[in-house]
């Protein structure tokens, strides 16, 4: 089983790339979705997060992820506390999910905070998706984020240079879907399939 980290700055297009890899035959997991599952109402993490951050983060009995996001992006200490609660459970959920996969699977693990979490050693290979800040800003505004939220979230993440230093390969995504798909197909055929074949020996 080949485990590939897929990272990149917010709005760079990681999910598009992950979708293309899935269409080519990979199994895709999203760390953010696993993190959401980890704090669902009724879970141990839910109780611990509410105890740590208070009822202010609740909305209709569930954790308001937007409110929680505002808190952690404004306060590095709060961010560290949240990660200490959630990350072990996210890793457990991922390890549990992997048990049902075939041994020759190529797994793409979408992880926005690869560099920040110093978790490169958990993966066999790492790819970062990079895009111009202006293009990322437009995409994020289309998602409904305000300008101050975009600035704060970009500032809270590792720089392009830091992400690249943790990765084996860079995908450039400047808005051309065909060019992006061609890059993904080339990486799949020339890099990941041969790696997976050798990895299984």
Topology (elements, then pairings):
Blueprint lengths: L1 E7 L5 H11 L2 E4 H8 L5 H10 L4 E2 L2 E2 L1 H10 L1 H23 L7 E5 L3 H4 L7 E6 L2 H10 L4 H10 L3 H6 L3 E4 L4 H23 L2
Parallel strand pairs: 1-5, 1-6, 2-5, 6-7
Antiparallel strand pairs: 3-4
Helix pairs in contact: 1-10, 2-5, 3-5, 4-5
What is this structure, in a nutshell?
This protein is α/β, with parallel strands linked by helices and 201 residues long. The protein is 57% helix and 15% strand. Strand 3 and strand 4 form a beta hairpin.
Structural notes for this entry:
This protein is an alpha/beta fold and 201 residues long. The protein has a domain of 120 residues: Rossmann fold, CATH 3.40.50. The protein is built from ten helices and seven strands. The chain has a five-stranded parallel β-sheet. The mean pLDDT is 91.
Keywords summarizing the entry:
dephospho-CoA kinase activity, globular, alpha/beta, 57% helix, five-stranded parallel sheet, Rossmann fold, 201 residues, two-stranded antiparallel sheet
Strand order of the largest sheet: 2-5-1-6-7
Low-confidence parts: none
- Examine the coordinates and then state which fold CATH places here, giving the name of the CATH topology of the domain at 2-26 and 105-199: Rossmann fold
Q: How much β-strand is present in the residues?
A: 5-15%
- Sheet/helix structural class: alpha/beta
Shape call: globular
Organism: freshwater metagenome
Keywords: ATP-binding, Nucleotide-binding
Protein name: Dephospho-CoA kinase
InterPro entries: Depp_CoAkinase (IPR001977), P-loop_NTPase (IPR027417)
